[in-house]
Design brief:
There is one protein chain. By secondary structure, the protein is α+β, with helices and mostly antiparallel strands. It has one domain: CheA-289, Domain 4 (OB fold (Dihydrolipoamide Acetyltransferase, E2P)), CATH 2.40.50. The chain contains four helices and eleven strands, in the order αβββββαββββββαα. The strands form two sheets. It has a six-stranded mixed sheet. The longest helix has 17 residues. The termini are far apart.
Length: 173
Amino acid sequence: METTLLEREPAAVKVEDRAGKYLVFQLGREEFGIRVLKVREIMGIQDITAVPQTPAHVKGVINLRGKVIPVVDLRLKFGLPEQDYTQRTCIIVVQVRATGPQSAMLTGIVVDGVAEVLNVSSSDIEDMPDFGDGAATPYLLGVAKVKGKVKILLEIDQVLSSQDIHSLNALVR
């Protein structure tokens, strides 16, 4: 009986760690959330300077008050069809963990629209269902059930793989 309790305990702690404030945004009909503590700024879509020979999901770079930051289109990163930008399309500037001399770096993520800031309690969060072999989803923190809707919680540091971050870091140097 004790081993069963011990086996369950880490998962409970993990759920507890996921509770907090999330910025909820849309990609298509789905709603996603990222921790508010990772968000530095939300801005309307602006001119993005394309950079040659980058992956399709890397839209380019923008000038943010004198600092050049890379911009990633989350629709394309998640394999969703490309869509024209609208009045609701915006760039969320997030701080992601980077490897190397810089421990953190600013990156813009293009989303279809920002919905709200939600305070998600641990009782509202469930683990992601197992999608079987071959479905690598380390960037999914879990699913929040709020007001009868499901919101997918993202670990933004994991959404952009270390390879992505390394190449984005090289872009802005």
